[in-house]
Every structure is written in C-alpha cells, then in structure tokens.
Write a structure and sequence with these properties.
Distance between the termini: 23 Å
Number of strands: 0
Number of helices: 10
Oligomer: single chain
Shape: globular
CATH class of the largest domain: Mainly Alpha
Strand content: under 5%
Helix content: 55-70%
Radius of gyration: 17 Å
CATH topology of the largest domain: UraD-like
Order of helices and strands: HHHHHHHHHH
Structural class: mainly alpha
Number of domains: 2
C-alpha cells in the first residue's frame, strides 16, 4: 500500500529505514542518513534528497553503491537470493527467461564488465527488455571508468525513483 508524503514524514527512524531501506539496492545507510532531512514537501523532494546524498559521496562511495548491485541474470537470480525488488525488476525485463545463448553471452559480458570496471553493470531493468539490456551491456563495456561510474549512478537513481514511486503516492504538495 502506497502512503502519502505526510505519512512518510511521520514515520519513526526504524520504520522509515525498514520501508525505504532498499530503494538504493542494499544501501539502507543512505535511507538512514536521509531520514534526518524530513519533513519532505513531496515525493520529488524525497527523491531529490536521496539523489543529493548520493551526488555528495566521494567516487569510492559511489562505486560502493554500484558494488551492492547483483549481476543481471547472475547467480543470485539463479539461486533465488536476489532482493524482492531486484527479482521483480529482473523478471519483468525477462532476465529470468534467457535462452542458453543469451545466458552465456550475459555471463561473459557481466564478467568482462566487472573485470574492466571493478563493479557490476547497473541498468534500470524496468525500463528495458532483455535484448536492450544485452545491447547496452555490450556497448557500455567500451566506456571509460569515469563515464561508466557516472552512468551506473544515474541508473541507480532511476531504480531508486521507480522504487520510491511504488511506495509513496505522487506529488500532491504537502503543506509543511
């Protein structure tokens, strides 16, 4: 059940972290830090607060966020150990229905990407299908590290925004 921004602002620290702790994959510390910025005027303000927090991190912190993400169609998907959110997102993009050739190509490209950048490939799976994801992974393997770190963080923010939209009602500005 989605809540309005007034309900979000009224949450205790523990409830806020429990509910929003995975809007940035396996990074509840971001949610914990953002809680102190309440009250939020709107969903957009909450999204901006998380985005601003991420932007203020040193490059090593941004890479840490990227490293929290699972490989697309990787062993976590096969073994059922993805977070609920990641499982739904990957399944929605068809990552759980790759044919053997696609699966082999995905595994090879994931490995090549991680060797090159030292963090996994991150893309907002809900905005793409498996063919598009495979194409992007192949193309992005050719980028430089700085470009790819920035691109990965932008994808993290897209994922975060979609996850927040699933939890919070859209912007009807709240009177503070």
């Amino acid at each position: 059940m989605r809540m309005d921004i007034a309900a979000v602002n009224a949450l205790s620290y523990e409830d806020f972290v429990n509910i929003f702790g995975n809007v940035v994959e396996k990074c509840p510390i971001i949610t914990a830090a953002v809680w102190s910025r309440r009250p939020f005027a709107s969903l957009t303000a909450l999204e901006a607060s998380i985005s601003d927090f991420i932007d203020a991190l040193p490059e090593s912190g941004k890479e840490g966020i990227l490293r929290c993400h699972p490989d697309l169609a990787g062993r976590d998907l096969q073994s059922g150990t993805l977070t609920r959110e990641s499982h739904e997102e990957q399944a929605g993009a068809g990552m759980d229905a790759l044919n053997p050739a696609e699966s082999s190509r995905m595994a090879r490209l994931n490995e090549e990407y991680k060797e090159r950048f030292e963090f996994p490939f991150v893309v907002c799976a809900r905005m793409h299908d498996k063919a598009n994801i495979l194409r992007q992974l192949s193309e992005r393997c050719r980028n430089g590290r700085v470009v790819e770190r920035a691109r990965g963080i932008e994808e993290v923010k897209k994922i975060c925004c979609l996850r927040l939209q699933g939890l919070v009602l859209s912007d009807a500005p709240n009177k503070l």
